[in-house]
Amino acid sequence: MATSITVNGRAHSVEAAADTSWSLKESVRYDERRVQTRSWADYPILTFSEVPAVDVVLLNRPEERSLGTGEGSQGPTVAAIANAIANATGTRLRDLPFTRDKVKAALV
Amino acid sequence: MSISIEVNGRVRAVDADGETPLLYALRNDLKLKGARFGCGLGVCGACTVVIEGKAVQSCDISLAAVAGKRITTIEGIGSADRLHALQAAFLEEQAAQCGYCTSGIIMTAYALLAANAHPTEAEICAALDGNICRCGTHARILRAIKKAAAALP
Description:
heterodimer; A: 108 residues; mainly alpha; 4 helices; 0% strand; B: alpha+beta; 5-stranded mixed beta sheet; 5 strands
């Protein structure tokens, strides 16, 4: 990481739970002909009750040049969850989202 | 036809069909733009207002159904120079990214705190499970609501 300029905004973008949401829940359903997901009523997304606690630690390195950090946590979060599943089960999932059904199917 | 509704303590006449969603009357007729159109189906919470003390999704309820009832919108709980504790806490915690869900979430929290001044985190989450936040700002929103609850008498 480089110089932290807008520290609070940067922490905010890292702690956002959207990455957890799409790692574990989000997908649009299709059948052979068309999109079946039509609204927020049938699109699964993380709710308040499901959001994990997140601690953000920023490493300020003023000697490095500044970079954008928008959505910077999103790749690593998906990878961390995938690694945790692999560590716990010995099976590596490569198809998002990692739903309960997909994890169970991978264990059989 | 004209329908009278009470919004933020004022009786307002709206010249619209009784089947018009309350949200459309608020935004288009009364120019109260705080409540947002999200899904139009009553499932995302962006349009939440408080009616007779309850958080209600205003896209999904008709003008006729709210005639004569007390409606509170985000514009009615505070102003730029006299913020409600919830509004102040959301600013202090910077509890918004895109901000589209924010007024609906504040109104859900407003109804919750009126009924339960010191909710647990689980109670706050349960109250907010009908409000979707696409950006994932949940953690800050929860901090802001807890801060507001602590600040309110």
